[in-house]
């Protein structure tokens, strides 16, 4: 099922939670909504589900306008972060619940519901656990049951709101891989909400980066890492430094020291550069001059904080573990890779 979100605005009282959001989700795609808390991910998901209605704009399922349709009419399955299973019901009854509450006539026979529950337990790799109660399962198993329950109604679309958010890192990672494989087998159009960039990139075909009720960028993991479209995306995805620079005649300069070349127009720009894209230069060479303020170990390397001369910003640089990290040491850094954004671009 293809989904088109067209110019959606959503305000709560007067508070704008989403501003003019448009997004096309292809049939069978697994897409991740990624952004910090409060960026509007859940609101967008609830609008797609039919749990909220847009202030303006439209949502299409296939070619039909679903904007005014109810959750049941849209036939979506969803799983939330704390999707409580019914404690007093067995796992099998939990999975079959959405079918047992269907109106007579559309409700499958009891034996059929039981058979479907068993099939789904196989699918989510919990065969034979239908007779257990939720409290007899681990957190990861419960979330898989929640997913089986969402799938039981044969939804046209699967909506997952931080479904693994409450689980510990190791379980999360396993479930992530498992969900990716499940998606490859079942091919449901799936929208997955997360604030974890690693999770988004590992799981999704495309990632939608959101901030303050707006979509900042839609792209593959590589796109958002290597070609961040905005200062927000640059600094949200991975470590980053920002240095104010001036472009004149194709040269990028910081306080008169030429850092590199660009095709951008003359004027003031914001240079964004990642800690591993700064190289130590020989003293006397042009670059970002400063002094080493402190250093910490980061895996196999070392991240040093450099205070740029003349009260410039403090920036981080990745050094090899054996580099001289003496506090107060004078250093000159040359960016090897960067992005320039105009001064007026949306603040990060
Ligand atoms: P996210 O899921 O990215 O954390 P949400 O979509 O939950 O963000 O929220 C986006 C913004 O909308 C937040 O500022 C939140 O406080 C506000 N908001 C969400 N739901 C409601 C509501 N029912 N009433 C009022 N404000 C809301
Ligand atoms: Mg949320």
Automatic annotation (TrEMBL):
The keyword Signal does not apply. It comes from Aureimonas pseudogalii. GO terms for cellular component: ATP-binding cassette (ABC) transporter complex. This is Sulfate transport system ATP-binding protein. Residues 3-237 form the ABC transporter domain. Keywords: ATP-binding, Nucleotide-binding, Sulfate transport, Translocase, Transport. It comes from the Bacteria. CDD domains: ABC_CysA_sulfate_importer. One of its GO terms (biological process) is quaternary ammonium group transport. PROSITE patterns: ABC_TRANSPORTER_1, ABC_TRANSPORTER_2. GO terms for molecular function: ABC-type sulfate transporter activity; ATP binding; ATP hydrolysis activity. The keyword Methyltransferase does not apply. The lineage of its organism: Bacteria, Pseudomonadati, Pseudomonadota, Alphaproteobacteria, Hyphomicrobiales.
